[in-house]
Amino acid sequence: QDAIDRKEKRSETFKTALHGLETDTPSLKTEELGRRAPQWVRDNLVTMCMRCKEPFNAITRRRHHCRACGYVVCARCSDYKAELQYDGNRLNRVCQECYVFLTGHVVLEDREGKHKGILEKEAADVSGRSLLCSSLQLLDKNGKGGTRGWFVIPQDDPLVLYIYAAPQDVRAHTSIPLLGYQVKDLPQGDSRHLFQLAQSRQVYTFMADTEELKQRWMRAMARSAAGITHPEDEDEDSCDE
Question: What's the gap between Cα 236 and its chain centre?
Answer without folding.
Answer: 27
